[in-house]
Amino acid sequence: TWKWVVGPMFLYLCERLVRFWRSQQKVVITKVVIHPFKTIELQMMKKGFKMEVGQYIFVKCPAVSKLEWHPFTLTSAPEEDYFSIHVRIVGDWTEGLFNACGCDKQEFQEAWKLPKIAVDGPFGTASEDVFSYETVMLVGAGIGVTPFASVLKSVWYKYCHDATNLKLKKIYFYWLCRDTHAFEWFADLLQSLEAQMQERNNAEFLSYNIYLTGWDESQATHFAVHHEEEKDVITGLKQKTLYGRPNWENEFKTIAGQHPGSRIGVFLCGPEGLADTLNKQSNSNSEADPRGVHFIFNKENF
């Protein structure tokens, strides 16, 4: 038995030593941004840190807990000179990080007063394959939208510098939220992308749909008054916010009709129930003919 056990145990020990060494490397918090509804953004730098879109890291803050490590998706793009995470304050540890960063104080916080942070990673996810397709569907549910912040930022950098070599030609983006609390920080990114794509006369590159799943049409009657205005009253985007849940069968059939003979990547970051629905739709809307349209489903769960 020991012959079978000693090999895996040695590899496991080596992996733990590498992770311990990486976690001891110095991390500098360069900026803390407070977003609405108790969401903070930590921008950090670390020597030798290299990332791809949609990856995640483990974070430890000794000032809050000396043992706890928590996973967070990277929301920055590989092209940026820092890496960032968005942290929603929903528990004791995140509340402790919020206070340790001085976000509960009104006055400006000096950089040297910010807490020490240990980072382990980054680690890969399915979202890294986004640039392998010409057409993709990105589906984020709630805070599960964070990997796609990294994807959309990176797409924009690549598009600006060398659009001709970018294989990705069309993005269908879906964001499902129960309420408006999560919109603020991400809507800013979408507004920027929307404006820049229009400046370059390629507004069709990014097609996005935002759904408020916790509301129904009766609750949305107040906002229906403003439906004819140029920008949405909730997000400030030209695309109007939708209410209820999307009809996934119609969405898949529409996209399949617009991209015949294509391999379409479907990427989800959200709950297991939604993953089952999208997986079934991907299979049922893929053609048996190898030259027909095929939906390739990829998921990651929080």
UniProtKB/TrEMBL annotation:
Q: Which UniProt keywords apply?
A: Cell membrane, Electron transport, FAD, Flavoprotein, Glycoprotein, Heme, Ion channel, Ion transport, Iron, Isopeptide bond, Membrane, Metal-binding, NADP, Oxidoreductase, Phosphoprotein, Transmembrane, Transmembrane helix, Transport, Ubl conjugation, Voltage-gated channel
- What is one cellular component GO term in this UniProt entry? monoatomic ion channel complex
**What residue intervals traverse the membrane?**
none
Ribosomal protein in keyword set: no
Q: What is its cofactor?
A: FAD
- Has UniProt tagged this entry with the keyword Ion transport? yes
Reaction(s) catalyzed by this protein? NADPH + 2 O2 = 2 superoxide + NADP(+) + H(+)
A single GO molecular function term of this UniProt record? metal ion binding
One Pfam family for this entry, by name?
NAD_binding_6
CDD domains, sorted: NOX_Duox_like_FAD_NADP (cd06186)
User: What is a biological process (GO) this protein takes part in?
Assistant: monoatomic ion transmembrane transport
Q: Where in the cell is it found?
A: Cell membrane
Give the way it sits in the membrane: Multi-pass membrane protein
Q: Which segments constitute the FAD-binding FR-type domain?
A: 19-129
Role played: Catalytic subunit of the phagocyte NADPH oxidase complex that mediates the transfer of electrons from cytosolic NADPH to O2 to produce the superoxide anion (O2(-)). In the activated complex, electrons are first transferred from NADPH to flavin adenine dinucleotide (FAD) and subsequently transferred via two heme molecules to molecular oxygen, producing superoxide through an outer-sphere reaction.
Query: Which PANTHER family does the record cross-reference, listed alphabetically?
Result: CYTOCHROME B-245 HEAVY CHAIN (PTHR11972:SF60), NADPH OXIDASE (PTHR11972)
**What is this protein's name?**
NADPH oxidase 2
